[in-house]
Design goal:
This protein is mostly helical and 98 residues long. The protein is built from three helices and no strands. It has one domain. Helix 2 runs antiparallel to helix 3.
Length: 98
Amino acid sequence: MMWLVFDQLWSVSAAVQMKRTFASNLRLLAQFAREPISRDLRTAGERSYALRETINGNFDRVRDLSGGVLLEFGLPASGISHCGSESFAGKRKCACSS
């Protein structure tokens, strides 16, 4: 029963989650580049430290998810394989396997 709930109903592949986390991290890096927002040095320093820690944590999460991508199996729901070409769902072979 738990397999159905966690793996089938609300499943998000590690690759999709990794892309989302990486995109979020790029937004945070852009925000960090625009710092400091506050003129108060103490507040700006705390904000900068918090952003750095969040970015670091997100990069750790991306690294963790990259290991999970290698362990996933089956055809992706989108029909796109790991190399970007259409998979068997799209009736084409992966370009890197030929």
